[in-house]
Amino acid sequence: MLLTENRIRNIKIIFIYVLGFFLFFMPDLEPFIPHYKNIYILAVIDFFFIILYKKKLIYQFSENYIINGYVLFFLASIYTFFNTILHHFSIMNNMDSITVPLKLICLIGIVYLLNSTYKENIKKFDFIIVLGTIQGIVCILMVFFKPLKEIANTLYIYNIPNYFESNLLGITGIRIYGIAGDYTFSTPIFMALIASVSLYSFFKLKQTKYVLFSSINIIGSVLNGRTGLILFLIVFIILMFFSIRIKYLKEKKIYFVFSFLFILTTIYILKDSSWLKWLWDGLHEILLLFTGEKVGTFAVLDKFIFFPKGLDFFFGLGTKVYGNFGLSTIGNASDIGYINDIFRGGIIYISLFYGTMVYMLFKTYKKLNHFICKKDNLLFIFIISMFLIISNIKGEALSASSIMLGCLFFISVICSKNITTNDKGEVNNG
Question: How many whole angstroms separate alpha carbon 323 and alpha carbon 343?
């Protein structure tokens, strides 16, 4: 009987990991599975979650401020949906109004499944850390095994119209590793977020496995993008000099520096000198910015900053202005998440959506006061906030990307009722 129960539990854990991989990386498998659509899979998963947790959701609507926050996210998305219809745009211009609620329901379901599987919150944190590590291992394997790399190339090229005639031609030779849907934006930054939380966990729990997890995740991140590495570097430096136990850090500084150099050396071995130049060009652009000189990405950033006119600034137009959406509707385009959010729902939308996120972060900070030392909890909130704020400049991070979902996952886990502490205010990890 015990063996059967263990087997059922193991099957359940595997199912949660498959479900988590699907939600956080959202690979579009249509090139290999005809008529496959992620939105249909999400809808089916959500239907079963709603049936399974119907009573719990109704009860927690009045008891759990995190669920209330999700409801406000739903309302904000619905507002943009009607905005799109009102302005006679195709719903394809604002699919986020549908996918955001679907993804958030799926996220709630996964958190509930984890709550019924693990008692300790640290194991729930480990779930998403291991999930990113699996993706990191896949990325590294693709460097050595070209047939595996072709899978990533196929997934990426399939969703790029006229790829072989576009300015993206050749990007698969430098980037695009792993099994994901958004290779160049949300996936690498999400993996850098996991690498940062892994590093934070190492400082808190002193378990060396988190150094390994952090290294694998940041390697997978850098293989697909540079922004994640920059954010990780900020976290690395702050943790190294201002973190939990200064005395401990002083003793281990050389070790941490060595670990970072090991990560860069490993990536260099995996790739070639062209990759190193690509990475340095990104860092060089940032260094020149401090001298007042804008080059590369920062040189064109000003062109991406524009706003809707008149009342549309307050109410929005119900459409994105990213890429072809912007060019076909207003004759201009912007990658910046904040600009796209204003065009979708105006000041009304961003006040509700961003305000809800700030509220949830504040409540999480107060919750952390009860089980993490006060000098540590602000650091954790800083990590989450920094990833959300900066990544939404790079792209649409606050439209239920894996970056936002990852941050909400940590918030939901922290604010669950399974947290325990010892007399010193440290987390009991079972």
Answer: 13
Mean pLDDT of 68-88: 93
Check residue 424 and give its pLDDT: 39
Residue 4 has a pLDDT of: 77
- The helix/strand/coil state of 256 is helix
Residue 25 has pLDDT above 80, yes or no: yes
Q: What share of the chain is helix, strand, coil (3-state, %, to 5)?
A: 75, 0, 25
Domain boundary assignment for the chain: 2-414
**What confidence tier does 423 reach under pLDDT thresholds 50, 70, 90?**
very low
pLDDT at 7 over 50: yes
Distance (Å, whole) CA 324 – CA 159: 14
Find tokens 């997978």 and name the residue: 220
Tell me phi and psi for residue 370, to 5 degrees: -90, -15
Q: Count Cβ atoms below 10 Å from residue 190 Cβ, excluding itself.
A: 32
Helix (H) or strand (E) holding 100: helix 96-117
* Vertex 122 angle, CA 388 and 262, to 5°: 70
